[in-house]
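agent> fetching stored inputs for the flavin mononucleotide docking request
agent> found them:
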Amino acid sequence: MSTEQTVKKQLDSSMWRMSVAPMMDWTDKHCRHFHRLLSQHTLLYTEMVTTGALVHGDVARHLRFEAEEHPVALQLGGSEPADLAHSARLGEQWGYDEINLNCGCPSERVQRGAFGACLMNEAALVADCVKAMADVVSVPVTVKHRIGIDKIESYDFVRDFVGTVADAGCQVFVVHARNAWLKGLSPKENREIPPLRYEVVAQLKRDFPGLTIAVNGGIKTDDEVQQQLKQVDGVMVGREAYHNPWWISSWDALYYQDESRERTREDIEEQMVLYMEREASEHGTHWYSIARHMLGLRNGLAGARRWRQVWSDHRLKTLPPHEVMKLARTKPNEIQQEPAEQML
Ligand SMILES: Cc1cc2nc3c(=O)[nH]c(=O)nc-3n(C[C@H](O)[C@H](O)[C@H](O)COP(=O)(O)O)c2cc1C
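agent> prediction call returned; pasting tokens
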């Protein structure tokens, strides 16, 4: 690798302070547009895109995104250095701020493709993949991984993995703080059953103080985020951010000292309606496939259930989105339907 490339990759680890996790079928471009309205600074990850999809498929369909989504990281799934290099180069050309390699997904399909979490057993191959990508792009190449495979709970295993991959040029690791059990658990169970061991991630940061280490897994409150930020550089939040997106709207002030934007949930909803109209006219996207990502926006407020029901009612698909918003904001039925929530 040339010195020039190394200089280009000088990192500011604050870029990883807060991020929303890559989630298949969830963090598509519409979801990321929504999350970006909630926070200017949080790093957003795409769903995993396989190298196969980029080498043989419709590149624009997988990589298209709007300029306002930045900073945004493309997550790749694959294990062929040449294909990953090709895909990383495409990612950089399309404007992504980071290329992330998935070494944490335990699904059977991904295992058949010999990538995802099973790559943790092949640190030398991951190092080759990282090097192949880092050689052809100037944006950071990062890795998301677990703390172990199956029942191996030895710290040395994950420490050696990180050490080997770091030597190949990866300076940022996002660590899902549980093992991946490759046999017998569904991907969903693999996000819940293997125990969380945050101390392993904190130990990685102590052993590799020069690397940027972000922790992921089971983090749901500001107290937990603040606790983690005392030990590591960043926190990645997945399910809680998706289900309770309004939480994201406090992050700019709390974690980036940026209080410049005052927004209400209604402002966000209105901006989403404008986006739905634009997407429909420019790309033929139906509002329904955009609205599904914002259904948690009013969680915790009176009338949240009715609002969610309106935005997810397929019988309303023929209406334009501003009409749906009007309906969602109409209150009369709430009193009958949701006396309990009215009391809140
Ligand atoms: C629906 C769903 C899809 C996911 N897809 C991916 C993926 O494509 N790539 C990946 O690295 N992790 C994926 N994950 C795992 C998350 O990135 C994250 O590691 C996990 O949910 C733990 O974080 P959390 O407890 O904050 O949700 C997915 C999780 C969910 C719930």
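agent> quick read of the result: The CA atoms of residues 184 and 190 lie 9 Å apart.
agent> awaiting further instructions
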